[in-house]
Amino acid sequence: MTIYKNPEYSPIHIIDSDEILYLLEYPYNGKKVIGYLFEVKKLETATLLMRISKTYDKGKYAQDSFDREKENTYYDLPDIFYFQKNDGQILQLPKTKDELIKMFPEKKDKIETEVKDKKLNPKNMKMFPQLFRALS
Length: 136
What we know:
single chain
């Protein structure tokens, strides 16, 4: 599905799945990008957002009988998580505990306690709500 990047379309509430998309400017690969992010969890102090995207691989026709044709294909890219503070600042959620502590040094004790006590794996999406509570 393609959605135009017009501010009047944001937020989008998908009724069937109860998902909400926001058109926001966020950091991606060292640049500021404008695009839609899915709301994963909302708390009083912040919101956890997720970027879901695909990439397109163009196919090719066989040039002769020895060559093989390749179909057009789409691939899912890894999901990227963002943390939006109440002041509107959007930060990409790091993949390691140490990077998360650098991002939120004032919450170091809470983060370490959550990771150690609950044996959280930073690569597992199920850990985000628990860590998110520690950050809020």
